[in-house]
Design a protein that fits this description.
The protein has 176 residues and is mostly helical. It is built from five helices and two strands. It is globular.
Length: 176
């Protein structure tokens, strides 16, 4: 039974990866949502979350089995905000200091810009764009952590040591 599930696990990981990668290519090169008002390639991430939810249901796993926990949720967010704030303050402060030492004037701007394969960049300063930026980043983290660092490691570590499963997962993550 375990061998059969492990084979299914490897095939499931490959199938999910192939579908997500195909959806990514379609979104990047055919739909081109990065050129729309959305300014982000987020559709393949939403599809990935839907596929992840279906896979979890199909193999009888819960979200907590792949690392998502309700306990300490707010505490984890606050720690992340604190870490991000400290790192940003230190790095940006260092950059401003170096620019000042070089005699180059610098100033602080707050805006959201989308990623575009064509290189076009629009700087958005409206509150809606900041909300969308946070929302799209949550969707990105949910999908990537759930699929690559959650489900794949869980499935692959049934037949391989944890470190090898992690390495294989990291290798697939580089391809996407």
């Amino acid at each position: 039974m375990k061998v059969k599930r492990c084979v299914k696990g490897r095939r499931l990981c490959f199938a999910i990866f192939a579908i997500c990668l195909s959806a990514r290519f379609i979104e990047y090169f055919i739909i081109e949502t990065d050129k729309t008002a959305i300014g982000e390639n987020v559709l393949h991430k939403i599809l990935g979350i839907i596929i992840l939810a279906a896979a979890l249901k199909g193999i009888d796993l819960k979200w907590r089995d792949i690392g998502f926990q309700r306990d300490g949720f707010a505490n984890g967010i606050m720690k992340g905000i604190l870490l991000g704030g400290v790192c940003f303050t230190l790095s940006y402060g260092l950059e401003l200091a170096l620019l000042a030492l070089q005699g180059t004037p610098a100033h602080f701007e707050l805006y959201v810009s989308g990623f575009s394969l064509t290189g076009s960049q629009i700087n958005n300063t409206g509150a809606l764009f900041f909300v969308l930026c946070v929302l799209f980043n949550i969707i990105n983290v949910w999908m990537e952590e759930g699929v690559f660092r959650g489900l794949f490691i869980k499935m692959l570590s049934e037949t391989k040591p944890f470190m090898i499963a992690t390495h294989k997962t990291a290798s697939t993550n580089k391809l996407k």
